[in-house]
Design goal:
Blueprint lengths: L8 E2 L3 E6 L6 E8 L3 E7 L7 E6 L5 E12 L4 E8 L5 H9 L2
Antiparallel strand pairs: 1-3, 2-3, 2-5, 3-4, 4-7, 5-6, 6-7
């Protein structure tokens, strides 16, 4: 099994998700976050490679940009989705967000 590059922190941080190819903003909660990316559950899957922006309202609407790295169906029509950041986030930012929840 391949070791993870960054430590994942479980969380329920509220975020706003904007998929670049679609109109509108979706509000949801993260499942976990790391310096390299994050994961969340959504209604339906999103294609791998899809570009998106995630803003963190609790951190002054700081925006992370990236792409969908993976998408797996889970219960009740939901999908667990993993986003890879374009630029690694500072560990202190992730820890500050996670510690609030």
């Amino acid at each position: 099994m391949k070791a993870r590059k960054y430590t994942r922190f479980p969380t329920n941080i509220p975020v706003s998700l904007k998929i670049n190819s679609m109109m509108g903003v979706h509000k949801l909660y993260l499942s976990d976050a790391s310096q390299g990316g994050l994961s969340f559950n959504a209604h339906g899957c999103i294609d791998q490679g899809t570009r998106l922006n995630v803003s963190f309202p609790e951190n002054g609407d700081e925006v992370a940009q990236g792409k969908i790295a993976w998408c797996r169906p889970v219960d009740g029509g939901q999908c667990r989705i993993g986003m890879q950041f374009d630029t690694m986030m500072k560990r202190t930012i992730i820890e500050k967000l996670v510690l609030r929840h």
